[in-house]
């Protein structure tokens, strides 16, 4: 299915690996120019190399999304490179909790909220003026099925993803008449480097993860990328303020 993109520019944060890399590659495959942003320089440049090897166009910008000056610089680099911004996928995020709520630390709270909430807020804050200047566009934020319910032993992470959905819905209403759509994608367990590290530490987690999805497996990064591109495409022109679960049926139980 054609996503009806033409001569446009997409920005992806957290694009050095996993869902971010897969989505940057998918945007490029549709003919978009892509700004690849991440703290991981080697991974980010690796994503750009993969895009260029496939005949696409991309640039890498190192960015810490928790620092407003770096987010501002990211937007400036985007305009300097390609002159516009049409789509943004705010995907940078972390999950570092290991225990129940009362066992958490202030450092964990600040780190998770800093990247997952402040980072998304800062990116939208500085993307929206560019989209307004362009006459419209779309933003997709990475939330999680943890933002649609509970996540035992990941309470701070769950709170951060509930907050992402709140930011998403509020911005969607604020800018609905400006031809800017804002949605969130909510993955369940996806086959990423982060998941593989957890599986190597405890192989039982893989069995549990597969069992939590009625389809009987964990998700693929390309499946999340497809959802993001749909939400950015003209096919989703009447869709805004939504938190789309891409979860193998996990939240339907």
From TrEMBL:
<dbReference type="InterPro" id="IPR002347">
    <property type="entry name" value="SDR_fam"/>
</dbReference>
<comment type="similarity">
    <text>Belongs to the short-chain dehydrogenases/reductases (SDR) family.</text>
</comment>
<dbReference type="InterPro" id="IPR020904">
    <property type="entry name" value="Sc_DH/Rdtase_CS"/>
</dbReference>
<protein>
    <submittedName>
        <fullName>NAD(P)-dependent dehydrogenase, short-chain alcohol dehydrogenase family</fullName>
    </submittedName>
</protein>
<dbReference type="InterPro" id="IPR036291">
    <property type="entry name" value="NAD(P)-bd_dom_sf"/>
</dbReference>
<keyword id="KW-0560">Oxidoreductase</keyword>
<dbReference type="GO" id="GO:0016491">
    <property type="term" value="F:oxidoreductase activity"/>
</dbReference>
<dbReference type="Pfam" id="PF13561">
    <property type="entry name" value="adh_short_C2"/>
</dbReference>
């Amino acid at each position: 299915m054609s996503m009806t993109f033409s001569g446009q520019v997409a920005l992806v944060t957290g694009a050095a690996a996993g869902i971010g890399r897969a989505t940057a590659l998918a945007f490029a495959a549709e003919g978009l120019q892509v700004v690849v942003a991440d703290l991981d320089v080697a991974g980010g440049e690796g994503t750009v190399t993969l895009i260029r090897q496939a005949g696409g166009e991309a640039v890498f910008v190192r960015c810490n999304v928790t620092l407003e000056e770096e987010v501002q610089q990211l937007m400036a680099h985007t305009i300097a490179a390609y002159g516009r911004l049409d789509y943004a996928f705010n995907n940078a995020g972390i999950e570092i909790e290991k225990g129940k709520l009362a066992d958490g630390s202030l450092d964990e709270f600040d780190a998770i909220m800093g990247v997952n909430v402040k980072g998304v807020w800062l990116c939208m804050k500085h993307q929206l003026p560019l989209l307004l200047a362009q006459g419209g566009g779309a933003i997709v934020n990475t939330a999680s099925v943890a933002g649609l319910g509970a996540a035992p032993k990941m309470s701070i992470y769950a709170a951060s993803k509930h907050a992402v959905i709140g930011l998403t819905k509020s911005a969607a209403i604020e800018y609905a008449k400006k031809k800017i759509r804002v949605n969130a994608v909510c993955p369940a367990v996806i086959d990423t480097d982060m998941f593989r590290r957890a599986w190597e530490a405890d192989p039982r987690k893989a069995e549990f993860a597969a069992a939590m999805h009625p389809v009987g497996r964990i998700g693929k990064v390309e499946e999340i990328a497809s959802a993001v591109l749909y939400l950015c495409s003209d096919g989703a022109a009447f869709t805004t303020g939504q938190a789309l679960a891409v979860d193998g049926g996990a939240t339907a139980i």
